[in-house]
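S.,

Sequence below, as promised.
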Amino acid sequence: MCFKYTVLPSVLSSLWLTGTMVSIDAMGTHRNIAEQIILQGGDYLMALKDNQPILRDLTESVFRNASPMSVYTTEEKGHGRLEKRTCSIMDTTLLEQEGMYEKWPGLKRIIKMERERTENGSCSRETIYYLSSGEKDEASYFARRIRAHWGIENKLHWHLDVTFGE
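The prediction came back faster than expected:
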């Protein structure tokens, strides 16, 4: 059986989640995980990539064809690069019309995070979509949580590289 179906539910069940926002990469973006977090009193913020292609495509379409309820943009300069991040959020009304809302326990917001990085004259772009049970109406709230998730991931990669020589 796969890691996400055995280890992640076990780890989550050992944690006190009431009042917390659990941030999970695409590997853990599954209905049973969302349901467990909700049942334990928490909220989720789950990356939506190729693991859920139908829902990801539908979410992309919603953002292409409707105006977000909130948008938040930040720019940072450092380490020889400029990074611009734009976070947009929508409620789930349009997903609900397509019958997807009921399949995700507690789903309240869909989020689009666009990241543009310029370094040494070259530019790269990345867009990641997220599902969340959080009800906040401000894109800045979700942008901070997504950035915090990336920060943890970046620090872990640094330790793998430096401490473990990987």
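The beta strands are 21-24, 43-48, 70-78, 81-91, 109-119, 122-132.

Coffee later?
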